[in-house]
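Internal tracking record. Fields below are filled automatically when a chain is submitted to the structure queue. Please do not edit lines marked as system-generated. If the sequence contains nonstandard residues, flag them in the REMARKS field before resubmitting.
Queue: standard
Priority: normal
Entity type: single polypeptide chain
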Amino acid sequence: MAEFVDILIPEDQQEGTELELAAWLKEVGERVEKDEPIAELVTDKAVVELPAPATGILVEQRVAPETQVEPDAVLGRIETAVEVMGDGISDAPTLDIRAAEAASIPIPIPPSTPPAASAAPGDRPRPHPAVARRAALLGVDLGTLEGSGREGRITRSDLEPGLPAAEARPTERTSGSARPADPALGSARFVRHDPMRRSIARHMSESVHTAPHVTAVFPCDLSRVIAHRARVKGDFAERGVKLTFSAYFLRAMAEAVQEVPEVNARWHDDGLEVFEEIHVGVGTALEDQGLVVPVVRGVQARDLESCAGELTRLTDRARAGQLAPSDMRGSTLTMSNHGVMGSLFASPIIINQPESAILGIGKLEKRPVVREKDGVDQVEIRPMLYVSLTIDHRGLDAFHTNRFLGRFCAVLEGWEV
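SYSTEM-GENERATED OUTPUT FOLLOWS
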């Protein structure tokens, strides 16, 4: 007798983010193994693989690719019936045609897989048929790509960077609608948004629409932080920990939140939910593939070395495409270190809803500053950067913003060398 298992969104993907089914990695009628990736989900933070809940035959896809889904949605079904073979029972699932027909489930013949030349090189798992067919359609050589999936498997999201350079051609679509290109604009090419970019766009637009953004900026002198880092980073490295400036920023954030706890909060119509624990999302750019925000949890209880070690682990996993969904959930405050890309200052840095604030760190550079010594003004060269705090003005005011930034800078400028 046929038994069906619903394909659901995993619990660790059900909270606090938008979801879109990016692609199916198996076709209806294909056999799947339990925990084998069968689809890709995309959020505003990452592309993740959806594991099969059971071994069987994929008999239904209820949600089309590039479709937003609710957390409790049933995406499809797997048939897990067993068949009797001789004196024993085989655990190999079979497609129950009558049950499928009664349930109005389409049962197409699985499309053929592209030739072996499209398979990943070495010991890397072969791409799923849907990914291989997509690559063949786009003219992408899978052998030239680095896979971000499990064990280095190439996923659908890996294909876009490998697209061959297209010859300039008239733009056929603008803002999602087809229309002829304006001859006065000259030639152009159309780059289709991937699911992650669309999700980021929705999330950013909703944040600006939801919260009135206000930004304050303070200058910050890192002379003492630099001196301390030069003294201890070798010891940290011997213990396998990379000491970056971001670790100092996390500690300063924790100190500033202790003084202004309202910054570490979430707005509700009937009040402000102020969190006792500080979970900081750290914006991490993936070159032209978007942005992910891994979370350093419990910053209030971490020392400098613990912050540095966790930052190293998370950023390494992010750039290797190995972040787990749990690594990107539950932030209460976010830091954007945009200065690593050369930016002096950015405003407003859009708040990661439903948080109440986001800290921005600008480029560190030497600047002339005026310091008074013995009543005499002197010009000195100091390592300076601009720090900003963008707030949700519904719940926070200038008092909170300036006091937070003042404490943040005081911690860094007074760091014990």
